[in-house]
Write a structure and sequence with these properties.
This protein has 9 helices and 14 strands. With 335 residues, the chain is of the alpha+beta class. The strands form 3 sheets. Strands 8-7-6-2-10-1-11-12-13-14 form a 10-stranded antiparallel β-sheet. Strands 3-9 form a two-stranded antiparallel ribbon. A two-stranded antiparallel sheet has the order 4-5. Helix 1 (8-17) packs across helix 2. The longest helix has 25 residues, at 210-234.
């Protein structure tokens, strides 16, 4: 049943079959979006540089350089990698290593490169990214900022190049010894349509009866189980769920308002952002944040985000239309 949902019309029909009223089914189906699933694929050993991939080394043009972050303004309590490291080393040694790492400038780790020409060929008419060029994603693998605080901005970088005529594989810079080097995994795009979870700004204004809400929640729960199983089969047992654009597969909750607040310098971590005058002013503005890239924890590439979570790169649609990929935001969610 679920594999027959390929657009808003087929989703609306499926929801009606679940007993949801016709108009409500159409409204809910209108929340669905097209995206591009990024699936592992085989490529020729002698391929030219510029393939869409996870990990390995980026293929950069001459005018782009491997980005580094400055020192962090303050050292946070150990989390992520540093917490796991305490299983092998005394906490005092871990804290010393963390301070050495955080208090110095460090290259960001290379996550992925997306060849937009390759992706556009499989994405269809609803695709709203540039038809050509390369987008590169970098992240601080050890600190793994959550995106709750404005200071997390130095822990990731997204680069874009419209010129792909002279790409050259970059050399890996000298890095802290604990930084993981992700295994290269070539990716192919596959256009898909997915329903949207009924929460967050997308659901505002949709007045559902109790019966319709319960029916949709039940539908979405079963669809999500099916999606995870399909992804696990595609990834060889690892439900990584990498995707470009489309509907985010939430782990903890919607992120559009968080992106709006934190990108305007308002910390989201202490729970006061919604109630502050500055926060209310930001949330009163139109919100056009959209998912750019979702990366799941991937055993094949050697990527793990928190406790088997996901990285979500977001961007304002207005910035996306101008190819201002440098203005986005990153959020980590995990279980």
């Amino acid at each position: 049943m679920f594999d027959q949902i390929t657009d808003a019309r087929s989703l609306s029909d499926a929801l009606e079959q679940r007993g949801i009223s016709k108009q409500t089914a159409q409204n809910l189906a209108g929340l669905g979006q097209f995206g591009v699933a990024l699936l592992p694929t085989e490529v020729a050993p002698d391929r030219p540089p510029g393939v869409t991939k996870l990990g390995g080394l980026p293929d950069l043009p001459a005018d782009l350089h491997w980005p580094s972050r400055p020192a962090y303004p303050k050292v946070e309590k150990p989390k992520g990698f540093w917490t796991r490291l305490t299983a092998w080393l005394p906490e005092r040694e871990v804290l010393k290593k963390q301070r050495q790492y955080c208090e110095t400038s460090q290259p960001l780790n290379f996550l992925a490169q997306i060849n937009l020409s390759e992706i556009a060929a499989s994405a269809g008419e609803e695709y709203d990214l540039p038809a050509s060029g390369m987008v590169y994603f970098f992240y601080d693998d050890l600190e793994q900022g959550w995106g709750f605080d404005p200071s997390d901005a130095i822990g990731f970088r997204v680069l874009y190049s419209a010129d792909m005529t002279e790409l050259k594989q970059a050399r890996r810079p000298s890095m802290f010894e604990e930084v993981r080097f992700y295994k290269e995994v070539a990716l192919a795009g596959e256009r898909r349509f997915e329903p949207c979870e009924f929460e967050g700004i997308h659901a505002e204004g949709l007045m559902l009866s109790q019966a319709d809400r319960e029916a949709y929640d039940d539908f979405f729960e079963h669809w999500n189980d099916w999606r995870i199983e399909r992804s696990a089969n595609e990834m060889g047992g690892d439900p990584a769920a990498h995707k470009l654009r489309g509907v985010p597969n939430l782990v903890q909750g919607p992120m559009e308002e968080q992106c709006a607040l934190v990108s305007q310098g308002i910390s989201f971590g202490d729970g006061t952002a919604y109630d502050s005058p500055a926060g209310r002013a930001v949330l009163a503005q139109p919100n056009d944040w959209v998912l750019l890239l979702q990366l799941g924890s991937d055993a094949q590439a050697g990527m793990q985000w928190g406790d088997m979570g996901k990285l979500f790169f977001w961007i304002k649609k207005s910035d996306l239309q101008q190819c201002r990929f440098d203005r986005g935001w990153l959020i980590l969610q995990c279980y």
